[in-house]
Structures are given as structure tokens and as C-alpha cells.
Amino acid sequence: MIAVMSPQIPRSSIVASDEANVFYPVGNEQRKGFLNKRSGKEVSDFQWRVYDHIKAIPSGQITTYAEIARSLLSSPRAVGGALRINPFCPLIPCHRVVAANGSLTGFAGQTGTGSALDDKARLLKSEGIDIRPDTKVNGYTITKKDMLAKSWSRPKKVSS
Questions:
Q1: Which fold has domain 45-149?
Q2: How far is CA 146 from CA 23, 98, 100, 150, 156, in A?
Q3: What pLDDT sits at residue 1?
Q4: What local confidence, expressed as pLDDT, does residue 137 receive?
Q5: Is 94 annotated in the active site?
Q6: Which of 3, 57, 91, 94 is catalytic?
Q7: What are the boundaries of each domain within the chain?
């Protein structure tokens, strides 16, 4: 199977696309051999775990690469690497993942400054997250108030 999104699609259409147009496989049968058109490679087990985790973040809430890494027993860079090639935008809302200091560090494979980070800031603002321009990080930062008030952690599984 092949993901619907490809790197040739302009970012603006990815951001504005309807979630109904994005196929997200569930279960091992649908996922086996699934190719990511953004990377040209099969989606790894780790990437599936990251995408499943991100899919659960509600609109209007954020989490950090470090928080996801702790939950998945991984590293923030590995989480960022999986999200950099996320073929399931916007269904897998990677825009809701930020650096531990609140800065918007990357989006749609772009880091630093640029139109992709502007898109990420716009998406977060549209969900009620307070974003401010920040010259210290050369981009945008989420206010400390919203980092505390709107942080999301995956609920712990309760064993019976």
C-alpha cells in the first residue's frame, strides 16, 4: 500500500487538506509493507508507534518530542525523525509536537525558519495555542502559560 501524500504536494495543500483524504492503516495486515511516499521506504515499527501516539493528541493541546520519547523509551531526535517524514498529515497532527522549551523547531521536514514553521504556528493558533514570535529561537515560541495549561500526556495504561 502507498500513502496518499507525497513530497511533491505543496505544504499549503497538506495543511489545508481534508483528513478524509488521508488513509491511515490500522492493524498488522494493512501496515505490512506500507510504503511512505515521502521517504520511499517502508514505515518502520517505531514510526507506527510514534504516529499512533501523535494521533491521540486532542486539538488544542500540545506535547513535546521529549515527552513522546519518554513514553516510547526512545530519544527526542528519533521522534523528530519519524515526524519529519510523516506521510499522514494532517490526520497525524505532528504540528502539536514542540520542543521542551516551547519553541516550534520543525514542521513538514523543514527546520529553522520559513513557510512550514509559519504553517505550524498558524495551525496551533487556530487551535487556541498562544504562539509568540521569538527572536531568541529565530521563529516562534509557545507561551509558558500555554506550555503548562495545554500540555498533553498519553494516559497510562491500567493493568487489570
A1: Arc Repressor Mutant, subunit A (1.10.10)
A2: 31, 12, 13, 5, 22
A3: 38
A4: 65
A5: yes
A6: 94
A7: 45-149
